[in-house]
Specification:
This protein is α/β, with parallel strands linked by helices and about 450 residues long. It has 3 domains: about 210 residues, FAD/NAD(P)-binding domain; about 110 residues, FAD/NAD(P)-binding domain (3-Layer(bba) Sandwich); about 110 residues, FAD/NAD-linked reductase, C-terminal dimerisation domain (Enolase-like, domain 1, 2-Layer Sandwich). Helix content is about 35%, strand content about 25%. It has 14 helices and 22 strands. Helix 1 packs parallel to helix 9, helix 3 crosses helix 4 and helix 3 packs parallel to helix 6. The longest helix is centred in the first third of the chain and has 26 residues. The protein is globular. The structure holds 1,4-dihydronicotinamide adenine dinucleotide (NAI). The site of 1,4-dihydronicotinamide adenine dinucleotide (NAI) has 24 residues, from helix 6 and strand 18.
Length: about 450
């Protein structure tokens, strides 16, 4: 039995980042992790491996579709599936090992095994019970599956199974047009699978600015993804060929079905807190299985904190990381804080989609007077040079003060471009502040500036 200042349960982006910050702030820190590798869902079976697959298949698409346009002639690459999966696994290993290195460097102890909290201030891992002044729950989330669906992770899969399929499916049904469904759906569409996305709502990517979501759907449809919207899934069952998904359209009860080699269930995630002993401990819970916390990440139990997907808010790795750093600072007697108004969201398809702050729908709902500055990548020389001129930047600013309220980008490197708007928003900048900032030419980021100009006297290249 050992005594620590802090024990963090879970080594995902929330937990491992928090541990490193705790150690940097002089706290004797341990992390409990039951997986064989550090990094949680994000590094092992989520963000990182999916980005490897998105990269590989994007390159494949470039080689097949755009190389000859640039005078790059020759044999079109074929996919060696085993090697592609190995590349993805190597990317994961490189990153998980990197965290092991950071733990050693910062003297963070890894307690291997699954943890539970038998009483306040105690964490049990295997047969050992450790003490800590403070405990942080950073146990993340798990896939939320529709009732009646039996997963086998071979034919009816979550994102985890979708990253290790034994062969490239000829057809795939994706249930849920959220981030996972569209990212993995576009990976397999680029690999030649016929992909049908079945979504309960009438639009894809709920919560996204509607104009961007509409344009996103049109672009994905051009890439070959089929969409069935407003469809309530009734049955998902195994067949000889693979599996069948049957639905009823919500508007008129019309029935439809499709059979495919693989069905990916991507209908959201829910907090993963089972086995921790929270009920016996009397931890107060919030809606949808979340752990209830105050704005300092404190639960109702003294010395017990929670962060990341296990608490309220968007289930995003970077939100968990920020909370991990903030809670470390709070436990060290400093003033940790997360600005929830400026958390970017990114979908890593091609083109990428990124957003921060309010959507136009939210501003309308708030009855706020706003203006819209839009600029198409068609007017951006750099985007045209790389055949990525589809999409646009949209900046929303207060009508009176010109303060930036939100930004929504669909286009090349949108996931990177969004951060200049994030920084601007953190500083309370106006659209004019962005517009008056010199942007290097030729870069994609000029499109952000042009959208900011469009909030004022108008863009130049439109
Ligand atoms: P999601 O919440 O993004 O999307 C789930 C979709 O499934 C929604 O469009 C919802 O309307 C639909 N749906 C729910 N029930 C349905 C039903 N019965 N029939 C048809 N459609 C149904 O969830 P997703 O994509 O599973 O991702 C889980 C979490 O992981 C999200 O919070 C997401 O933000 C996060 N994530 C983030 C990524 C990123 O930042 N790039 C990548 C992957 C996941």
């Amino acid at each position: 039995m050992a005594q620590f200042d802090v024990i963090i349960i879970g080594a995902g982006p929330g937990g491992y980042v928090s541990a490193i910050r705790c150690a940097q702030l002089g706290l004797n820190t341990a992390v409990v992790e039951g997986r064989d590798t550090l990094g949680g869902t994000c590094l092992n079976v989520g963000c990182i491996p999916s980005k490897a697959m998105l990269n590989a298949t994007h390159q494949l698409h470039e080689a097949h579709v755009n190389f000859e346009k640039m005078g790059l002639m020759g044999v079109k690459p074929k996919v060696d599936w085993e090697r592609m999966l190995r590349y993805k696994d190597d990317v994961v290993t490189g990153n998980t090992k990197g965290i092991e290195f950071l733990f050693k460097k910062n003297k963070v102890t890894w307690l291997k095994g699954w943890g539970s909290i038998p009483e306040a201030g105690k964490v049990k891992v295997g047969d050992d019970t450790h003490s800590a002044k403070n405990i942080v729950i950073a146990t993340g989330s798990e896939a939320s599956i529709l009732p009646g669906i039996t997963l086998d992770e071979e034919v009816i899969v979550t994102s985890t199974g979708a990253l290790t399929l034994p062969k490239i499916p000829k057809s795939m049904v994706v249930i849920g047009a959220g981030v996972i469904g569209l990212e993995m759906g576009s990976v397999y569409a680029r690999l030649g699978a016929e992909v049908t996305v079945v979504e309960y709502l009438d639009a894809i990517t709920p919560g996204m600015d509607a104009e961007v979501a509409k344009s996103f759907q049109r672009i994905l449809a051009k890439q070959g993804l089929k969409f069935v919207l407003g469809a309530a899934v009734q049955v998902v069952e195994r067949t000889k060929k693979g599996a069948k998904v049957a639905w009823k359209l919500r508007k008129n009860d019309a029935a439809g079905e499709v059979e495919a080699d693989v069905v990916l269930v991507a209908t959201g995630r829910k907090p993963y807190t089972s086995g921790l002993g929270l009920e016996a401990l009397g931890v107060e819970m919030g809606p949808r299985g979340t752990i209830k916390t105050d704005d300092h990440f404190r639960t109702n139990i003294n010395g017990l904190y929670a962060i990341g997907d296990a608490i309220a808010g968007p289930m995003l790795a970077h939100k968990a990381e920020d909370e991990g750093m903030a809670v470390a600072e709070i436990m060290a007697g400093k003033h940790g804080h997360v600005n929830y108004g400026v958390i970017p969201g990114v979908v890593y398809t091609t083109p990428e989609v990124a957003s921060v702050g309010a959507t136009e729908e939210q501003l309308k709902e708030q009855g706020r007077a706003y203006k819209v500055g839009k600029f198409s990548f068609m007017g951006n020389a750099r985007a045209k040079a790389v055949f990525q001129a589809e999409g646009f930047v949209k900046i929303l600013a207060d009508k009176e003060t010109d303060r930036i309220l939100g930004a929504h980008i669909i286009g090349p490197a949108a996931g990177d471009l969004i951060h200049e708007v994030c920084v601007a928003m953190e500083f309370g900048a106006s659209a004019q502040d962005l517009a008056l900032t010199c942007h290097a030419h030729p870069t994609y980021s000029e499109a952000v500036r042009e959208a900011a100009l469009a909030c004022g006297d108008g863009p130049i290249h439109a």
